[in-house]
C-alpha cells in the first residue's frame, strides 16, 4: 500500500499543479496550457543536458536526490489510503515539518553553492520566510492536536465533525501553504525577476534531470499540504458500502483537492505579490489565527 | 577520618554519572584535537602549559559534578572558573583576549557571589553542608525562604550558563579562547551550571511553586530568541557559535523549566519526560557545539581569519572539515535523522503533552512557548545555512581563503569522533531515552517503572491515552532508500549528460567572488524583521573631489547591542562614578588611614555592648 | 603598692604623649616598660607560676633593654633631626590625654563595677595606654613614632591581658614577643631605607598611596 501511495503521489502531483495553472490562465481570460503540461515539462527536462557550474561542489549534485527523497519520506507519513499502519509509526506532524526542513536546508545550501547573487538572495529570502512559518505551523499543530489528543497525523484521518477550531486552523494552514509552496502573495512561481522570486531563485542554476527532480519534489510537497488541509476541512472516513458508493467516495476524495486548488488559483489571480518584509506581517496573522484556533479547541468549540 | 570524609564527599548518583559522561565525551575529542591545533601556534613550553591547564580544567569540572558537599563544590567551582579564565587569556599578546578575560572573570564571580549567598542561607537553616542532609532539611523550609534561595541560585548559575541578560561574557570569552577550549567551555562548562540548577533547585530544594518553572521558561524563551537573533547578525564564526550557545541553553532550560512546572502541578510522568528532553538536548548540544567549535578552529588555523565575509570556497580546499561542519550544522538545525532533531522533537512533544494535561490559560502559555521554540529552530537553520554556505561554498572571497589547506590528522580525528557520536545519538535515540529516563527518575525521585519506551513509540501511561510515534532508524532507512531511488531515477532516465560551465552571471564579462552574496546581505531580511529589537543604524562617509565626483564612500552598518547599552553600561557608569567619589577618602596620607582604623576600633569597642 | 606603679606608668605615658624629641619618646617608653615589668613581676610573685617569671624576664630583656637600644641605634645611624614632627602641640596633646583618661575610666567602670577600684583603674589605664599608642601613630609625623606607637599599643594590650584575665596563654605571649622584636628590626631597616631614598623620614610627605 505504501508503494501505491508513493506512486500515486509521483504520478498525480504534477496534475494538481497543472490544474492550478490552467485555472489561473482561464481566470485571466486566456486559453492557457493544458492540464498535463507539467508532465510534458518533466519529460522534456529529463531529455535535456545539464549544465553544472564550475564553482559548485558535491552539495550541488546531491541536493536533488536529498530533496526528492526527504519529500517522499514526508509523503509516506501522510495517511492517504491507509489510515494507520506501521509506517505511520515512524513520525508525527513535527517529524513531517522537520523532514521538509531538511529538504529546504539542502536547497538553500545548493543555492549558495553556485556563487551567484540570485542563489544567495533566494536562499536568504527562503530561510527568512520559512523561519517565520514555523511558529504559525506550530500553533496549527497544537490546535489540531488539542482537538484530537495527539500530534500523530493519522489521528485526524477518520471522519470527524467539523468544528470552528478546525476551520480556523485550516485557514491558518492555508496561509502557511501559500508561503510554503511559493504562491502569490508570498512568491511568484512564474517569474524570474530578481526582485520577485524566492523559490525560483534558489533553483535558478539547476537544469536538466536535477531540475526535474526538484520540480517533482515541489509538486509532491504541494500535494502533501493540500491533503492536510483537505482532511482538516472536508473530513472523510473509510470507504464503505456498495461499488457506487465507493466510486462516489473516490470522486469526493479527489474533488476536495480540486476545491482547494480552485481557492488557491483564485487567491493567486486576485492578489498581488507582497513585499518581502510584509510577509512577516502576513505570517504573523497566520500565527494569530493559529492562536485563535487553539483557543477554540480549548473551549471545545 | 580521611576515608570517612571521602565516603561522604562524592556522590555518584545517576545525575552525576550523566554529567561525567557529558564531560568526558566532549573533552576527549578536544584533547585529541589540541595536539594538532596548538602545534604551530605557541612555543613548546606554552603548549605544555596549555595541556596541563586543559587536564586541570576537565578534572575540576568532573569534580564539580561529583561532590556532595557545598563547600567542596564551591572550591572546585572557583577552581574551574579560574582555570578557564587562564585559558581564555591564553593568547596574552591579544588585547581583546585580556578584555574578554576581564569581563568573564567579573561576571563569573558575580554569579559565584550569588551562589555563596544561597549556600549561606541554606546553611543558616540546616546547619550542614552535606547535600543529603540539606535535602532532608529543606522539606520543612518556609516557602518565602525557598523563593529567595531559588532566585539566588537562578542568578548565580544563570550567569555561568548564559541566560539573557547575564550572558554578556559569552560572546567575548568564547571567541578569544583557543578553539578546543572554546569547545569544552561551550559544550561542557556552561552545562555544569545547568547541573547546579537541576541538583540544587529540583533535587535538593524541591519545587513547590509553579511560578519557578514559569519564570525559567520565560527567561529561556527570551534567551532562545535573543541568542539566535544576535547569532544571525554576527559575521565572526566563533562569536556566532557563542550566541548560538546562548540559544541552546535556552532550549535546555525550556525542558528543565517545564519539568519544574510539571512537578509543581503534580504531574510526575510529564516532569520526567520534560527532564529527559532537557537532558537529551544538553548532551546533544555538548556534542554538536563542541564539534562546531573544533571545525571553526580548523577553519581559523587553515585560513588565519574567522570572519565569514573573507572566507568561501573552503569545501574544495578542506573537504573533510567541510563534511564535519555540515554534520554539525545539520545537527544544530534539528534536521532528521541526527541527534538535534530528536531532542527538539522531544521538547516540543513535552510542551504538547503538557498542553493536553494542564488547565486552560497554561495551555496557551505552553503553546506560545512551543511556537517560540519552533521559531528559534527555523532561525537556527537559517543561521547555519548562512555560516556553512558562505564559509565553505562558492568561491573564495579573499586571499585568506584561497591559501587554505586541510588541517592536521589529529584535528580531523577529533572532529570525526564527534561526528560519529552525532549519528549514534540520533539513531540510538530510543536507547538513550531509556537511560535518561533513569537519570530523570532519580533526580525527581519518581519511580519510572510505569513508563514504557519502546523502540518506536513513547507511551506515557497513565497520563495520556494516545501515543505518538517517532522512529529515527526507520526515518533514516527510508531516507536512504528514497535517496537511492531518486538517484536511480536520475541516472536511468534520459541519455543526457552533464556539462561543466560557468555560473550564469547575466552576461557580465568578469565573474568573481564579488558577485557572491555576502553575510551582511544574507541576514538583512532578519535585520529588518527584527529591527524593533536590533535597532540597526548606519554610518556613511563620503569624500568628494567636487560636487559631482565622489572619491570614496564608506558605509558601515551596525546593530545596537541593546542589552549592553541599556543594562550594563548604566550600571558600570554608576559603579565608576561611585568609585570616583570614594576616591576622595583616600588622599594618600598614612596618618589619615591609621586614623580611620582607630576610630573604627574605638567605635566598635564603645558600642560593642550591643552585640 | 600596685597603685603607685600604675601611677608611674600613667605619668610615663603622659610624658610620651607630650614628648617633642625622639630620644625623649624612647626614654619614656623605657620607663613605661619598666613599670610594666614591675607589675608583671609582682603578679608572678603572687601567682608563683614559672611561666610568668619567664614572661616577666622576657619583658625586661626585650622591652626595657633591647628594643630601646635598637631604636637609639637607628636614630644615630640615620642622623636626622631630633624633631618629632607634631600635628598637635604638646599642650593640646596633654589635654587630649587627660580627657581620654577620664573617658577610659568611665568605660572601665561600665565593664567592671566601680567598687573594685584597683581593677577598674588598671583597666582604665590599659585602655588609655592603647589609645595613646594610637594617638602617637596618627598624630606624629615621623616613621619612628609609628613604630613606637605600635609598641606602646602592645604594652597596653599586655597590661590589659595580664591584669584582667591573668595573662594570655604562654605560647601566645612568647609569640607576641618574638613578633614585636622582629617587627622592630624590620621597621628599623625600613626606616633606614626610607631615609636613604627620600632623605627624610617624614611619613606625611609619602602620599602616593592614593585612590
Task: For the structure shown, list the relevant keywords.
heterotrimer; A: about 300 residues; mainly alpha; 10 helices; about 70% helix; B: about 600 residues; two-stranded antiparallel ribbon; 25 helices
Topology overview:
The complex is a heterotrimer of chains A (about 300), B (about 600) and C (about 210).
Chain A: H1 2-27, H2 37-47, E1 50-53, H3 58-77, H4 93-113, H5 117-148, H6 164-180, H7 199-202, H8 208-233, H9 243-270, H10 279-299
Helix pairs in contact in A: 1-8, 1-9, 2-8, 3-4, 3-8, 4-5, 5-6, 5-10, 6-8, 6-10, 8-9
Chain B: H1 2-9, H2 14-37, H3 44-64, H4 70-88, H5 95-126, H6 131-137, H7 143-161, H8 170-176, H9 179-205, H10 210-233, H11 237-264, H12 268-303, H13 314-317, H14 319-332, H15 339-357, H16 360-392, H17 399-402, H18 409-427, H19 429-444, E1 452-453, E2 457-459, E3 468-469, H20 472-492, E4 498-501, H21 519-522, H22 524-529, H23 531-534, E5 536-544, E6 550-559, H24 562-582, H25 590-606
Antiparallel strand pairs in B: 1-2, 2-3, 5-6
Helix pairs in contact in B: 2-3, 2-9, 2-12, 2-18, 3-4, 3-9, 4-5, 4-9, 5-7, 5-8, 7-9, 8-9, 8-11, 9-11, 9-12, 10-11, 10-16, 11-12, 11-15, 11-16, 12-14, 12-15, 12-18, 12-19, 14-16, 14-18, 15-16, 15-18
Chain C: H1 2-18, H2 22-47, H3 50-78, H4 90-111, H5 117-139, H6 143-164, H7 170-198
Low-confidence stretches of chain A: none
Helix content of chain A: 55-70%
The radius of gyration over CA of chain A amounts to: 19 Å
Largest sheet of chain B: 3 strands, antiparallel
Radius of gyration of chain B (CA) equals: 27 Å
Written description of the protein model:
The complex is a heterotrimer of chains A (301), B (611) and C (211). In chain A, 68% of the residues lie in helices and 1% in strands. With 301 residues, chain A is mostly helical. Chain A has one domain (2-299). In chain A, helix 1 (2-27) crosses helix 9, helix 2 runs antiparallel to helix 8 (208-233) and helix 5 runs antiparallel to helix 6 (164-180). Chain A is globular and about 55 Å long. The model of chain A has no long low-confidence stretch (mean pLDDT 85). Chain B has 25 helices and 6 strands. Chain B is globular, with a radius of gyration of 27 Å. With 611 residues, chain B is mostly helical. Helix content of chain B is 71%, strand content 5%. In chain B, strands 1-2-3 form a 3-stranded antiparallel β-sheet. A two-stranded antiparallel ribbon of chain B has the order 5-6. Chain B folds into 4 domains: 9-208; 212-451, no CATH class; 513-558, no CATH class; 563-610. In chain B, 51% of the residues are buried. In chain B, helix 2 runs parallel beside helix 12 (268-303). Chain C has one domain. Helices cover 80% and strands 0% of the residues of chain C. The longest helix of chain C is centred in the first third of the chain and has 29 residues, at 50-78. Chain C starts with a helix and ends in a 13-residue tail after the last helix. The chains are: A mainly alpha (301), B mainly alpha (611), C mainly alpha (211). Strand 1 of chain A pairs parallel with strand 4 (498-501) of chain B.
Amino acid at each position: 500500500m505504501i508503494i501505491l501511495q508513493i506512486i500515486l503521489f509521483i504520478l498525480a502531483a504534477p496534475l494538481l499543479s497543472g490544474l492550478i495553472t490552467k485555472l489561473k490562465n482561464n481566470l485571466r481570460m486566456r486559453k492557457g496550457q493544458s492540464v498535463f503540461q507539467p508532465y510534458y515539462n518533466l519529460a522534456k527536462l529529463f531529455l535535456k543536458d545539464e549544465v553544472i557550474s564550475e564553482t559548485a561542489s558535491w552539495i550541488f549534485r546531491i541536493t536533488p536526490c536529498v530533496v526528492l527523497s526527504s519529500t517522499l519520506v514526508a509523503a509516506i507519513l501522510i495517511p492517504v489510503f491507509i489510515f494507520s499502519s506501521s509506517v505511520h509509526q515512524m513520525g508525527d506532524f513535527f517529524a513531517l515539518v522537520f523532514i521538509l526542513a531538511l529538504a529546504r536546508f539542502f536547497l538553500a545550501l545548493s543555492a549558495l553553492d553556485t556563487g551567484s547573487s540570485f542563489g544567495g538572495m533566494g536562499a536568504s529570502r527562503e530561510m527568512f520566510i520559512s523561519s517565520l512559518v514555523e511558529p504559525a505551523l506550530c500553533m496549527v499543530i497544537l490546535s489540531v492536536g488539542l482537538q484530537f489528543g495527539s500530534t500523530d497525523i493519522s489521528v485526524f484521518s477518520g471522519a470527524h465533525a467539523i468544528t470552528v477550531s478546525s476551520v480556523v486552523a485550516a485557514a491558518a494552514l492555508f496561509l502557511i501553504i501559500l508561503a510554503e509552496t511559493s504562491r502569490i502573495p508570498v512568491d511568484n512561481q512564474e517569474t524570474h525577476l530578481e526582485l520577485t522570486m524566492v523559490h525560483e531563485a534558489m533553483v535558478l542554476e539547476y537544469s536538466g534531470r536535477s531540475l526535474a527532480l526538484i520540480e517533482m519534489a515541489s509538486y509532491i510537497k504541494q500535494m502533501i499540504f493540500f491533503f492536510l488541509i483537505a482532511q482538516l476541512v472536508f473530513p472523510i472516513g473509510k470507504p464503505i458500502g456498495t461499488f457506487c458508493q465507493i466510486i462516489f467516495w473516490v470522486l469526493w476524495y479527489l474533488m476536495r483537492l480540486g476545491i482547494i486548488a480552485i481557492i488557491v488559483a483564485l487567491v493567486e489571480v486576485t492578489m498581488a505579490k507582497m513585499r518581502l518584509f510584509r510577509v512577516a506581517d502576513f505570517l504573523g496573522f497566520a500565527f494569530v489565527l493559529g492562536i485563535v484556533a487553539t483557543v477554540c479547541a480549548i473551549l471545545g468549540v | 577520618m580521611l576515608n570517612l570524609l571521602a565516603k561522604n564527599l562524592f556522590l555518584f548518583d545517576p545525575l552525576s554519572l550523566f554529567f561525567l559522561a557529558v564531560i568526558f565525551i566532549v573533552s576527549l575529542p578536544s584533547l585529541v584535537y589540541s595536539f594538532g591545533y596548538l602545534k604551530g601556534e605557541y612555543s613548546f613550553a606554552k603548549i605544555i602549559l596549555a595541556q596541563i591547564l586543559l587536564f586541570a580544567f576537565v578534572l575540576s569540572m568532573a569534580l564539580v559534578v561529583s561532590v556532595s558537599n557545598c563547600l567542596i563544590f564551591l572550591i572546585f567551582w572557583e577552581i574551574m572558573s579560574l582555570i578557564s579564565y587562564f585559558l581564555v587569556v591564553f593568547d596574552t599578546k591579544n588585547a581583546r583576549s585580556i578584555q574578554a578575560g576581564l569581563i568573564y572573570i567579573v561576571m563569573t564571580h558575580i554569579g559565584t557571589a550569588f551562589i555563596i549567598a544561597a549556600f549561606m542561607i541554606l546553611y543558616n537553616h540546616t546547619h550542614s553542608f552535606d547535600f543529603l542532609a540539606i535535602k532532608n532539611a529543606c522539606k520543612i523550609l518556609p516557602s518565602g525562604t525557598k523563593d529567595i534561595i531559588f532566585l539566588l541560585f537562578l542568578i548565580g548559575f544563570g550567569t555561568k550558563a548564559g541566560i539573557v541578560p547575564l550572558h554578556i561574557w559569552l560572546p567575548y570569552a568564547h571567541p578569544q579562547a583557543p578553539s578546543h577550549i572554546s569547545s569544552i567551555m561551550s559544550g561542557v562548562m556552561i552545562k555544569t551550571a545547568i547541573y547546579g540548577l537541576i541538583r540544587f533547585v529540583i533535587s535538593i530544594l524541591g519545587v513547590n511553586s509553579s511560578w519557578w518553572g514559569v519564570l525559567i521558561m520565560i527567561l529561556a524563551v527570551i534567551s532562545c530568541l535573543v541568542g539566535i537573533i544576535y547569532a544571525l547578525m554576527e559575521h565572526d564564526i566563533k562569536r556566532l557559535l557563542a550566541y548560538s550557545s546562548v540559544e541552546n541553553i535556552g532550549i535546555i532550560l525550556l525542558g528543565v523549566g517545564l519539568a519544574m512546572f510539571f512537578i509543581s502541578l503534580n504531574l510526575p510522568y510529564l516532569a520526567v519526560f520534560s527532564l529527559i528532553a532537557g537532558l537529551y538536548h544538553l548532551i546533544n548540544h555538548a556534542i554538536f557545539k563542541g564539534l562546531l567549535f573544533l571545525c571553526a578552529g580548523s577553519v581559523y588555523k587553515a585560513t588565519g581569519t574567522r570572519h565569514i565575509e573573507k572566507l568561501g570556497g573552503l569545501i574544495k580546499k578542506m573537504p573533510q572539515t567541510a563534511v564535519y561542519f555540515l554534520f554539525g550544522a545539520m545537527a544544530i538545525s534539528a534536521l532528521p535523522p541526527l541527534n538535534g532533531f530528536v531532542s527538539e522533537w522531544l521538547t516540543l512533544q513535552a510542551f504538547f503533552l503538557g498542553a493536553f494535561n494542564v488547565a486552560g490559560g497554561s495551555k496557551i502559555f505552553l503553546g506560545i512557548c512551543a511556537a517560540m521554540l519552533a521559531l528559534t529552530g527555523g532561525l537556527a537553520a537559517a543561521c547555519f545555512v548562512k555560516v556553512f554556505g558562505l564559509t565553505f561554498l562558492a568561491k573564495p572571497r579573499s586571499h585568506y581563503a584561497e591559501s587554505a589547506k586541510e588541517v592536521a590528522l589529529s584535528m580531523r580525528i577529533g572532529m570525526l569522533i564527534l561526528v560519529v557520536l552525532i549519528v549514534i545519538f540520533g539513531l540510538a535515540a530510543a536507547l538513550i531515552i531509556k537511560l535518561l529516563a533513569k537519570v530523570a527518575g532519580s533526580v525527581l525521585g519518581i519511580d519510572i517503572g510505569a513508563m514504557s519506551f519502546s523502540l518506536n513509540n513513547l507511551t506515557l501511561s497513565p497520563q495520556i491515552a494516545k501515543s505518538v510515534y517517532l522512529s529515527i532508524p526507520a526515518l533514516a532507512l527510508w531516507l536512504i532508500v528514497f535517496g537511492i531511488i531518486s538517484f536511480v531515477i536520475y541516472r536511468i532516465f534520459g541519455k543526457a549528460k552533464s556539462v561543466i560551465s560557468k555560473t550564469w552571471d547575466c552576461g557580465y564579462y568578469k565573474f568573481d567572488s564579488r558577485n557572491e552574496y555576502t553575510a551582511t546581505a544574507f541576514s538583512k531580511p532578519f535585520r529588518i524583521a527584527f529591527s524593533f529589537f536590533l535597532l540597526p543604524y548606519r554610518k556613511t562617509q563620503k569624500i568628494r573631489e567636487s560636487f559631482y565626483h565622489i572619491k570614496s564612500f564608506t558605509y558601515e552598518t551596525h546593530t545596537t547591542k541593546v542589552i549592553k547599552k541599556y543594562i550594563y553600561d548604566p550600571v558600570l557608569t554608576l559603579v565608576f562614578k561611585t568609585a570616583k567619589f570614594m576616591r576622595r577618602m583616600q588622599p594618600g596620607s598614612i596618618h589619615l588611614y591609621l586614623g580611620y582604623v582607630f576610630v573604627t576600633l574605638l567605635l566598635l569597642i564603645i558600642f560593642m555592648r550591643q552585640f | 603598692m600596685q597603685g603607685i606603679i600604675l601611677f608611674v606608668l600613667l605619668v610615663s605615658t603622659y610624658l610620651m604623649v607630650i614628648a617633642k624629641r625622639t630620644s625623649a619618646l624612647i626614654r619614656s617608653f623605657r620607663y613605661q616598660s619598666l613599670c610594666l615589668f614591675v607589675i608583671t613581676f609582682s603578679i608572678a610573685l603572687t601567682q608563683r607560676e614559672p611561666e610568668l617569671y619567664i614572661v616577666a624576664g622576657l619583658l625586661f630583656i626585650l622591652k626595657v633593654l633591647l628594643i630601646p637600644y635598637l631604636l637609639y641605634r637607628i636614630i644615630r645611624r640615620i642622623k636626622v633631626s631630633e624633631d618629632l614632627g607634631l600635628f598637635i602641640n604638646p599642650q593640646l596633646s596633654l589635654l587630649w590625654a587627660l580627657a581620654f583618661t577620664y573617658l577610659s575610666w568611665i568605660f572601665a567602670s561600665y565593664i567592671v563595677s566601680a567598687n573594685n577600684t584597683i581593677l577598674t583603674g588598671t583597666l582604665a589605664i590599659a585602655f588609655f595606654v592603647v589609645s595613646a599608642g594610637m594617638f602617637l601613630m596618627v598624630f606624629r609625623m615621623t616613621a619612628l613614632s609609628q613604630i613606637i606607637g605600635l609598641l606602646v599599643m602592645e604594652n597596653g594590650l599586655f597590661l590589659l591581658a595580664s591584669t584582667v584575665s591573668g595573662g594570655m596563654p604562654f605560647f601566645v605571649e612568647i609569640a607576641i614577643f618574638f613578633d614585636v622584636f622582629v617587627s622592630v628590626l624590620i621597621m628599623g631597616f625600613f626606616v633606614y631605607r626610607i631615609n636613604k631614598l627620600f632623605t627624610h623620614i617624614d611619613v606625611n610627605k609619602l602620599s602616593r598611596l592614593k585612590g
